[in-house]
Amino acid sequence: MTVKMNGADLLVEALKANGVKNVYGLVGIPVTDVSRLMEMEGIHFYAFRREDAAVEAAAAAGYLTGRPGIALTVSAPGFLNGLVALKEATENCWPVIMISGSSDRALVDMDRGEYEGMDQYNAAKPFCKAAFRIDKPEDVGLGVARAIRAAIGGRPGGVYLDVPGEMLGQMLDPSIDPASTIHVPVDPAPAQFPSDEAVKRAVDILTSAKRPAILLGKGAAYAKAEDQIRDLVSSTSIPFLPMSMAKGIIPDGDKNSAAAARSLSLGSADVILLLGCRLNWLLSNGASPKPFSEDVKFIQVDIDGQEIDSNRHIAAPLVGDMVSVLSKFVPAVKAAGYKAPQDWLDKIAEKKASNVEKMSKAEEAGKGKEPMGFYGAMLPIRDLIADNPDTYLVSEGANTLDIGRDVIDIFQPRHRLDTGTWGVMGVGLPYAIATAVETGRPVIDLAGDSAFGFDGMETETVCRYHLPVIVVVCNNGGIYNGKDPEIDGMVSPTYLDPSGQYDLLSRAFGGRAYCVRTYQEMEDALKEAYASKEPTVINAVLDPNMGKESGHIGHLNPVIFHQDGPVDLPSEK
User: Fold this and answer.
1) Whether residue 210 is found in the same domain as residue 164
2) Which of 191, 246, 552, 554 is deepest in the core (most CB within 10 A)?
C-alpha cells in the first residue's frame, strides 16, 4: 500500500528524522496545519506573540544545544519580523533554521498582487549564512539536510528555508518511496585540526610571554571546550578574562580570573590568546593603546580563517574547531612546562584587590539606598545564583546589562545569555523561554524597563507554558534613566513612565507579580518566586537618577546633549 504524503508531511518527517524535539514559531497562512502536524508527530510547538521572538528563542536553543534551533513563521510580514533575529543569530554565530511559508511563486514572480506576495528567498540571502527554497515535495528532505549542514558546519549561523504554500499541499509522486527522500547529514560539523607547524608557532609565542592573558568569548562556550580551557589555565596560571557570555567557562571568582583588573591586564599584556573571541567592536576592534598595547602579539583560535587579521595582525593563527585545536595546543603548552611569571600575577592580584575593595564598599552602600539603585536589585540575584549555580541568567538593557555583568557571578558554562554581538534589545524573554524549555532549569531574565518593552507580551507565552522564568525589570523610568530634561515642554525621547506597573502584566496571565522598592523587598520577593518555580515578574522600582547614557558605550553616540545644546564629539579611532 502506497503511503500518500504531501510537502507538509515530509517536512515534519524530515525534522523528526533529524532529532528535532522543539519548534518555536507563530502560526498563520500557510503554515498553521504544519504546526498541528508537528504536534501530532510528537514535536513540541511553542507559539509566540511575534516572529522575532520566536526566531530569537530558536537561536538561543541552537546556542545551548549545539544543534540548529528551528523556527517557523508565516509569509511576508511574519518572515520580515523574523529576519532581524535571523541576522542577529548569524552575527552571534548561533545555529538556527528559520522556516517560512511563502506565497504562489508564479504570481509573486510576475508581480500580480498575490496575498502577502514577496520573493522571500532572495530577500533573506544577505541576512543569513545560507538560504534554500524547496519547490518540490521530493526535495524537502534534501532541503532540511542542507539547512542543518549549513547551520552548524564551520562557523555556525542562521539559515533560511523557504517552503511555498503550494509545495506544502502538493502530494508526493506515488511512485517515490517517501523514506527515500529523507536525509540525515553525516558528520555535518567535522573536526578541524590545525597543522603541527601552527601549533608550534603558537606555543613558542605563548611560552615567551612575560605578561600573558587569555580572552574567552562565547565561541568557546558554544564549543563546549571548558574542560580543555580549565586545564590550560590551571596548569599555566595564565590570567583569563571572559567576555559576558563566556562567564562560567571557568567559574567567576577563580583565582586566575583577571576580570577585576581588566584594563591593566589587556593594556599591559604582551601576548593575548583569543579563544572563541573576535576583535570586533566589543573590543574596540583591537585598538591600541586602549584596550590593547601597540606591540601585543595575538594568538587566535577561530573556526573561520577569514576572521584572522580582520582588525589586528595575528601572530599565530590556529584555525579549526575549538575542541580539536585545544586537544593539540594544550598538551604542547603543558609539555613546555610554561608558567605565567609571578611578578605579572602579583601585579594583577594587587589591582584586583584594590578594585574588589572599592566594589564591595559600593555594593554595601547600595543595600541601604532608598529608593534603591541597580545594586539593590542585583545583589539578591547574585546571592541566589551563588547558592543555586545551575540557575540561568539572561540579561538585556544598557546600564542593566553592563552593571549586571560586573555584579553577578556565573559558575557554569553557557549559563549567561545576553544581547550579544549586535547588542540587540528585546531578546530577554525569548532567550529565557528557550533556555527554560531546553534545559528544564530556572531562568532569571534581568531587563531594563526599555528593553523589557520590546517583547513584553511574551510574558503571556511564559505563563501559557508555565515556565520557571523570573523577570526582573529594573525600572528607572527611562531609556538610560528617567531624568532627561524636557525640551520646550515636550516629553523627553528617553523618558518612560516610572509608575508603570510591569508586574501586573504577569498577573494578567496568571503569573506571580511583585513590586519592590528596597533591597530587602527584592531579596524576599526573589526567594519566594524562585521557590515557587512559577512564572513571575518583579517590578524593581529604582531611583530615576540611576543610569547613564548608553551604559558603557556612550562614546558610540556621535553627539551628546548638554543643557546649552548638542556638542559634537571627535570620532573615536
Assistant:
1) no
2) 246
* pLDDT (0 to 100) of residue 109: 84
3-state secondary structure of 213: strand
Rounded to the nearest 10 degrees, what angle do helices 196-207 and 322-335 cross at? 50
Res 559: pLDDT: 58
Domain that holds residue 81: 7-181
Read off the pLDDT of residues 304-320 as tens digits, 9 standing for 90 and up: 999 999 999 999 999 99
Are 418 and 523 part of one and the same domain? yes
Question: Which alpha helices (DSSP H) does 339-482 contain, by range?
Answer: 342-367, 374-387, 399-407, 428-439, 449-454, 458-464
Please report, for the domain that includes residue 237, its CATH number.
3.40.50.1220
477-497: pLDDT as tens digits: 999 888 877 778 888 888 899
The amino acid that residue 487 corresponds to is: I
Annotate 152-186 with b (16+ C-beta within 10 A) or e (fewer). bbbbbbbbbbbbbbbbbebebeeeeebeebbbebe
Q: Do the beta carbons of residue 308 and residue 255 sit within 8 Å? A: no
**C-alpha cell at position 573:** 579611532
Q: What is the end-to-end Cα distance of the chain in Å, rounded?
A: 70
198 DSSP 8-state letter:
H
User: Left if phi > 0, otherwise alpha if psi is -120 to 50, otherwise beta: which for 113?
Assistant: left
Residues 399 and 525 in one domain: yes
Residue 523 to residue 506: CA distance in whole angstroms: 19
Distance CA 31, CA 167 (A): 11
| Measured distance CA(559)–CA(522) in Å, rounded | 36
Rounded Cα distance between 420 and 418, Å, is 5
Residues 211 and 133 in one domain: no
- pLDDT of 567 higher than 70: no
Q: Which residue has the higher pLDDT, 117 or 64?
A: 64
pTM (two decimals): 0.94
One-letter amino acid of 202: A
Residue partners of 354: CB distance under 8 A and separation at least 6: none
* Nearest Cα to Cα of residue 483 among 473, 501, 495: 495
| Whether residues 137 and 243 fall in one domain | no
Clarify whether residues 238 and 384 are in a common domain: no
pLDDT at 1 over 70: no
Cα–Cα dist 139/447, whole Å: 43
- Within this chain, do residues 526 and 453 fall inside the same structural domain, yes or no? yes
On whether residue 83 sits in a domain, the answer given is: yes
266 lies in the same domain as 172? no
Percent of the chain's residues with pLDDT above 70: 96
- Write the pLDDT tens digit of every residue in 232-242: 999 999 999 99
**Pair 22, 392: CB distance under 8 Å:** no
